[in-house]
Amino acid sequence: MPLPTAALFPVPRSIELLAEPGPATDAAVRVHHDPDLPEQGYALVRDGSGTRIGYRDDAGLRYARQTLDQLRAAPELSGRAVRVRDWPDFAVRGFLLDVSRDRVPTRRTLRRYVEILAAARMNQFELYTEHTFAYADHAPVWAAASPLTADDMRWLDSLCAAHGITLVANQNTLGHMERWLAHEPYRHRAEKPEGFTIHGRHRRPSTLQPTPENAAFAVGLVRELAGTVRARRVNIGADEPWELGKGRSAADAAERGLGRVYLDHLLRVATPLLEDGYEVMFWADVVADHPEVAEALPDSGLVPVVWQYDGPAHARAAIDRATAEKRAQWAADGFDMEALAGGFRRRAKALTSAGRPFWVAPGTGAWNSLVGRLDNAVENLLDAAEIGHEHGAGGYVVTTWGDHGHHEPPTVTYPGLLFGAAVSWCLDSNRDIDVAAALDRVVFDGPGLGAALTAAGSVADLVDAPLLNGSALFAALFAYVDVPVVAPDRLAEAERVLSAAADSLARARPAAADGDIAVRETAQSIALARFAVALLAAGGVAGASPAAAADLLAGLDELLVAQRACWLLSARPGGLDDSIARFAPLRAALARRAAAAR
């Protein structure tokens, strides 16, 4: 019969039921150091003579005790004799939380994340920062953002350390600097001060000009943030420099190549930090497109992190269904869509061909979704684990982002986070875990919420309208003029699933300290998703009758009141108005349509 491993998280790589009596309830626990075990590894035996634990290091002992607690708590295992041997596939198993797209978490929320990471055996935490740290000399940039302070970071660092987690300073240093460049004192640092066009839309400047002065500016930010934590590892980002080589550096890029211009800036930022004794992580998207950069990277200290947020099959489905206009736009923007459909294997090719070590960074699928894109996330997380393990990647970082207003609360991130933690610990024994059951046991300490979250997270696939980096439900609210058509029967099934998930929340009984908050935030996310389904079912804004538009407008206004209240349960007030403002175009369009009845 199958081993009763469902009570263990993550599932160990090796567990045997022994044909002998199990331990008495008061049996002794003996612990000894075993240097022959792999790093972070342990061996645990429970039999009639008691419990014996061998461990390689402090982490291994911590994980062994965690497993022992789970064995004792599981009725089907507590009285059995067992032998467990376990260690992780990836030495670093991290989680990155975006705190720069409006939603800056409260200390209570940060504490909750740390508790979940510890329970899930993740050992690194990063807060993705653009402008939401209170840098000493840059108050105009963060004044309205309710930023994290140096005291917040020192508090969080101590909390992480107590749980065996490394808090890594993370500050972008090239792209995604729009919140800085929007202010006059910093605009001169922009590659294209007038802004740029991507996806057919004009955007304000986001990329620093690759100059020594701007590199020194970026290094100063990283050093100030890193000075609040004890880790000797930092993440300098340097991803998606959309304007690079298209503005002030255009002549240089034409002469020497864009890859060389990028590498020079990367090294100007990284080298002083390497000399400070830091290991330096950076995002490897530019490297993927410019293999010459991979060849020229330093031999040690600089860690390329390969990111990819759509599973290969999901990406292929979205690309194959794209309109001719969309394909033309991708080509005009310079995107290699075939590489995107190739998953982590294709994204890492420049590094694997050059024999360069790298880390992998998949995503939770929570952002641009309202309720998650769990099927996509599972495929993406598995792809990262498989390719990372195949190439000996030293780290696996689960990311969750907040693109376009970060409307999704923490609970929507938890399914992908927990699954990623499991498969980065041991892919072979965890690829088929029951995510809903694991959520109820590890995160919520009670039934109901796990099923609601996983059911809601399945709706993005259920509507059968695949998009890259987002769901049709999210697009219905925030890109309502460019939303795929969804069949009525798919929308009816989506409403049925979401309605059942909402009903199950009424029966949820989470005993976790923040269980009431988790229920309320999840209910709000499901309500937003149901509103999106209703909007699509009405034919969108353009297809809705004036009476239907009036009803939708009234429903939206109620949801926005609830969204403001729910936001403040887990996030600071800075950024709330900006996030709510994302609904304004839809609200205005519904109001115009409703007015046609008068």
Automatic annotation (TrEMBL):
Keyword Cell cycle annotated: no
Residues covered by the Beta-hexosaminidase bacterial type N-terminal domain: 22-87
Keyword flag Repeat: no
A Pfam family assignment: Glyco_hydro_20
InterPro entries: Beta_hexosaminidase_sua/sub, GH, Glyco_hydro_20_cat, Hex-like_dom2, HEX_bac_N
Region forming the signal peptide: none
The entry's keywords: Glycosidase, Hydrolase, Signal
Protein origin, superkingdom: Bacteria
Glycoside hydrolase family 20 catalytic domain location: 90-319
Family: Belongs to the glycosyl hydrolase 20 family.
Name of protein: Beta-N-acetylhexosaminidase
Source organism of this protein record: Pseudonocardia adelaidensis
